[in-house]
Amino acid sequence: MSGAIFRDAWGIPHLRADGPRELARLQGLVTARDRGWQIEVERHRAQGASASFLGAGELSWDVLVRRARIADTARRCFARLEERDPETADWIRAYVTGVNEGLHGHDAPEFARAGVLPGRWEPWTPLAVWLSTHLLFAGFPAKLWRDHAAARLGAEAVGLFATDGPGTSGSNGWLVAGERTVTGQGVIAGDPHRFIEDPGVYQQIRLSCPEFDVVGLAVPGVPGIAHFGHTGTVAWAITNAMADYQDLYRERLRRTGAGMEALGPDGVWRRAARHTETVEVAGEDPVEVEVVETERGPVVIGGPEGLDGGVPESGGPPLAVALRYPPRVTGDLGFGALLPLLRARSVADVDRAADLWAEPVNVVLAADTEGGTLHRVAGRVPVRSDANRVRLVPAWEPGHEWRGWHEPPRAGLDDGVAVMANQRGPAAALGVEFAPPHRARRIAALLARRGRWSAADMAAIHTDTHLASAAPLLDHLAALNAPDLTGPASALRARLLAWDRHMDAGSADAAAFAALRGAVVRRLAAEPALAAAATPPPYPDVFRPWLALVPRIGFALEHLLAAKDLFGIDRPAVVRAALEEVAAAPPAGAWGDTHRLAPWRALPPEDPREEPGLSGDHDCVLCTSAVPGITDLAVRGPAARYVWDLARREDSRWVVPHGASGRPGSPHHRDQQPLWLAGDLAPVVTDWAQLTKETDV
């Protein structure tokens, strides 16, 4: 096998080989060299072994991964690929060979700090990494919250707290057809919103061989370019469709002399698979985990004795909770789409590849140089009862089985434009909660301001900071009787009513609004009418972010303030008290002073530094998410930005929050951050003469 690694000025790898298999090996090799520590953390997380070197804080995650049978599902999916798509299976094997070559003797300092050596990847490991990365992507724990809210506050609470919101990661994406561009060729742009990690969750890369030449954003540890790519003649991008495709079943389990049984919908007790696994925990005793699987799926919460700790739920009989998710049912993760995407030459090719997709469920946009466009949903969503989609359902009652798969919806363009921002778009029939429409409407409105667009114009849309969701709180402020307020509160009210509603890092008014919003959230959470929901059920810690009352109020605040009634709470009084509170102790600086980047790292950095302040907010196009009522720090935001130009691929642009390298101290570890902060983009280099050859491999 032969190939070569080239780099551009940003250290982004451009890989050239004789064929797809050789290229996959090269991709695995360079990923391991650039992101060795990162992908090894992901391998351990996918196998439920991260607590063995990261400590007890990762134990709840490891237990969930073991119980959900992520590694076993990955093995099952790879075995199906070997049987039905041997070319893809062999291609993945080549990638894993390259990863193992790159990890051999890896000297990333984090390995020494954590006291762990690089391990060995198996052919199914990339599938496990993908499954692990997206296990909570569809937000099935939101069903735990809906159950909890309905039980403690009443059925109407489910709608009141429906944020159409941020329980899961999202993205912006938009397609401008050739009729609306200065070149007459399409442009696709956007930015995936995920937890910001260091190293980043996306890897800029170019994969070139005689069959194809593709630039795009890869997921480290997974071969190919799944989500965002440009082959020269066709480009594609995705956002989270917000579809609901994972179900939770309440299970009744009992121990028998032979093992364990679960009560089925026909009233018959049937054998449940059971075994135990040991999770190692750094500095502590190992933990034994009982892994149980019923006909519905793996049990992820509780067991025959009830919820964790033997606590019966709501005083009823002991219950467990089983998770049913498509790859576990079908043995298909959709990796059969990866090679066809790389080989795509037209939107028809992308469309056919999308038919093979499974998980996660995405909205796909694509455009080609022949003027073709595509706007569709890709992935598997089961057909089942409406109850399954909203809350936990009883496994022992009939009517909750899966009955085939929904046909993925399709949509067109509106005046030459398609916008996807996790709103109720083409996937509306497949989901329950979606993102508020603000980002989608704002992007559409910005695009409508100009008759023709170029690729270079798109950065201004990426960085728009208008916060439409501020309206309900500002409406409450406007309705207050100014003479009833103290002087400082009246002045603050006047300031905020005159504010331009832009969450700019340098804006003192944006900081004041955020402070008021946080105070309102905390005061609502302290209301006796909501107290019953303040204590979450005894579910594992990994689910607690979905069950905490203050973040739920913060993310649903727009609905809660605009609803006709909120459990009798005097909302004007709450807003007035919050206004007086903030006026008495206003924030000292601007929004960016407290709204700072807070990236996740497996280990704390050896050279800690103050992270930069950010513009934006959750409902801005520049989506940098704080947790109102808890913190202004931004843990989620644009994990990359891209602009794909179909007229000239070399006029395309991209950027990531940090840099191409995952190695601290590398000149390319953080060199893109100034661009990312400023809303600028780096050029996509396609001329091999402008690249530096690193090595033949």
TrEMBL record:
It holds the Pfam family Penicil_amidase. SUPFAM superfamilies: N-terminal nucleophile aminohydrolases (Ntn hydrolases) (SSF56235). It comes from the Bacteria. Keywords: Hydrolase, Zymogen. InterPro entries: Ntn_hydrolases_N (IPR029055), Pen/GL7ACA/AHL_acylase (IPR014395), Penicillin_amidase_A-knob (IPR043147), Penicillin_amidase_dom1 (IPR023343), Penicillin_amidase_N_B-knob (IPR043146), S45 (IPR002692). Belongs to the peptidase S45 family. PANTHER family: ACYL-HOMOSERINE LACTONE ACYLASE QUIP, PEPTIDASE S45 PENICILLIN AMIDASE. This is Penicillin acylase family protein.
